[in-house]
Design goal:
Blueprint (H helix, E strand, L loop, with lengths): L1 H5 L16 E6 L3 H10 L5 E7 L5 H8 L6 E4 L2 H5 L8 E4 L6 H10 L3 E5 L6 H14 L3 E4 L6 H12 L5 E9 L22 H4 L1 H12 L4 E9 L9 H5 L14 E8 L4 E7 L10 E5 L2 E5 L13 E7 L2 E7 L11 H15 L7 H20 L3 E2 L6
Parallel strand pairs: 1-2, 1-4, 2-3, 4-5, 5-6, 7-10
Antiparallel strand pairs: 7-11, 8-9, 8-15, 9-10, 11-12, 12-13, 13-14
C-alpha cells in the first residue's frame, strides 16, 4: 500500500499558466450552478468570459453584474443564437441549463464549432446522449461532462487501489448515497418538475455515485438493469423542506424520483447494487463496498453526497493466512487547495488550449447515462431491461 499512498504526495507544486493565449468562454444558462462555473473561470488568468445566454430575459445580465463581469453581449434570446454569433470568436461554452436542455444546447454548440463543458447529468435519455456524441464526432470538438468528484484525490486513490489488483477480481459492488431530507427546493422547481428535469435524485446525485465505482472499474459496459424509483417524499404536502423554503405548493409540481435503486450487470461479470435518495427515513443508505476475490474495499458514506469520501478507506484481505484490515487514510487537502470544481474548469480549459482530450469523456459517461435511463425505464416497465448502446 505504500506505493498507493506515496502517489498522493506528488504534484503539490504550483502550475504556471500561459496567459498569452486567452480562451474565450460563454455560459449558457445562468442559474445557480453557473455561479460555480463563473467563480472557477474567474480564477483562470487565461480565460476571458465574453458572453452569456438565458431563456429568461434579463437573467444573464443580472448574473454577470452580480459577479462583476463585463461581457460583450448577454442579451441573446437563447444559447443557439449566442454560439452562432461568429463575432464572439467563442472557443468554448459551459452549458448550465436544466437537464432537458442539455442535449439540444450541446448539439447546437458543437455544430457551431465550439468546445463544450456540459453539466451533469449527460442528458435525460440514452438516445439524446447518442445524438450529442454524433455531433461531437462530426465537429471534432471537445465534449467534457461535469463530473468533478472524480478529480478529488480520494476518488483518484479509489481508482488506483482497484486498478492495482490488490482486490483481485471485483465481482459485486454496493454503492449509492443520499440525504435524509434534501430535495433541492431552494433552487426553484427546475430540479423537481418533469418538463425541466426529467430525472430526479437518480440523475442529480446518482450519476456521481455510479461514476465513482464505474470509473474505478475502468467503465465496463452495462448489459442489463432492473430498476425501481419512487417519489413518496416529493409528493407529500407535509414534506418539511417545502415549508422551510416557503413554498408548500411545490409538492404539486414534483414530477421526478426522490429515490431510485438498480441492479446492474456489467460485461466483465461485476454486479452493482445501487440506491440513491434525495429524502429517506435513514441517516445513510450505506457505505460503498467493492467485493473482490483477494480483498474488499469499504468507502465510508457521507451525510450528503459531496464529491469525496466520508472517512478512511479500509481494505479487508488476508496476509500470511491471517484476516487483516489495512486502513488507507483519507486524503485531507490544504485549505488553499483548488476545489474539485476548480479542477473541472482548469482541466477543461487546458484541453481546449492544448488540443487535449476531454477530461471526462462522453465515451465513458454514455454508460453512466445508459444505466440511469435503464433504471428509469425498468421502473416504468416493471421488469429487467437490456442496455443497448450503439457505436457512434
Amino acid at each position: 500500500m505504500a506505493n498507493i499512498l506515496d502517489a498522493f504526495k506528488e504534484n503539490q507544486t504550483e502550475t504556471v499558466v500561459d496567459t498569452t493565449k486567452k480562451v474565450r468562454v460563454g455560459i449558457i444558462g445562468t442559474g445557480w450552478i453557473a455561479d460555480a462555473h463563473i467563480a472557477s473561470y474567474l480564477k483562470c488568468p487565461d480565460v476571458e468570459i465574453v458572453a452569456g445566454a438565458d431563456l429568461i430575459p434579463g437573467k444573464a445580465e443580472a448574473f454577470f453584474k452580480k459577479h462583476g463581469v463585463k461581457v460583450i453581449r448577454c442579451d441573446y434570446k437563447d444559447g443557439e443564437e449566442m454560439v452562432n454569433d461568429k463575432s464572439l470568436a467563442l472557443d468554448a461554452v459551459s452549458i448550465c441549463t436544466y437537464n432537458r436542455q442539455h442535449a439540444p444546447c450541446a448539439i447546437q454548440a458543437l455544430k457551431a464549432g465550439v468546445h463544450v463543458l456540459l453539466e451533469k447529468p449527460f442528458t435525460v435519455t440514452t438516445e439524446e446522449a447518442i445524438e450529442v456524441m454524433r455531433a461531437e464526432k462530426e465537429s471534432g470538438k471537445i465534449l467534457s461532462i461535469g463530473f468533478q468528484p472524480r478529480l478529488d484525490p480520494n476518488m483518484i486513490m479509489v481508482k488506483d487501489i482497484v486498478q492495482s489488483g490488490v482486490l483481485g477480481d471485483v465481482y459485486y459492488v454496493q454503492t449509492g448515497g443520499g440525504r435524509r431530507r434534501g430535495i433541492p427546493t431552494p433552487f426553484g422547481t427546475t430540479f423537481i418538475e418533469d418538463e425541466t428535469a426529467g430525472l430526479g435524485a437518480l440523475a442529480d446525485i446518482g450519476c456521481y455515485s455510479l461514476d465513482m465505482v464505474l470509473n474505478a472499474l475502468g467503465y465496463p459496459k452495462p448489459l442489463t438493469v432492473t430498476g425501481y424509483k419512487s417519489n413518496f417524499f416529493g409528493t407529500d404536502p407535509n414534506y418539511i423542506g417545502y415549508k422551510q423554503c416557503g413554498h408548500p405548493e411545490y409538492y404539486e409540481k414534483f414530477g421526478v424520483d426522490d429515490f431510485a435503486a438498480g441492479f446492474i450487470r456489467l460485461e466483465n461479470g461485476t454486479v452493482i447494487d445501487f440506491r440513491i435518495a434525495w429524502a429517506m427515513n435513514l441517516d445513510t443508505s450505506g457505505d460503498t463496498i467493492l467485493y473482490g476475490t483477494k480483498g474488499s474495499l469499504r468507502i465510508p458514506s457521507t451525510e450528503c453526497w459531496n464529491g469525496s469520501v466520508g472517512g478512511d478507506l479500509v481494505i479487508y484481505h488476508e496476509v500470511a493466512g491471517k484476516q487483516v484490515e489495512t486502513v488507507i487514510p483519507q486524503i485531507k487537502e490544504a485549505p488553499n487547495a483548488p476545489t474539485n470544481f476548480d479542477r473541472k474548469i482548469r482541466t477543461f480549459v487546458d484541453a481546449v488550449k492544448n488540443g487535449g482530450k476531454a477530461p471526462v469523456p462522453s465515451s465513458e459517461i454514455i454508460y453512466n447515462q445508459a444505466i440511469l435511463d435503464g433504471i428509469a425505464k425498468s421502473a416504468v416497465l416493471g421488469r429487467e431491461v437490456v442496455i443497448e448502446v450503439p457505436e457512434v
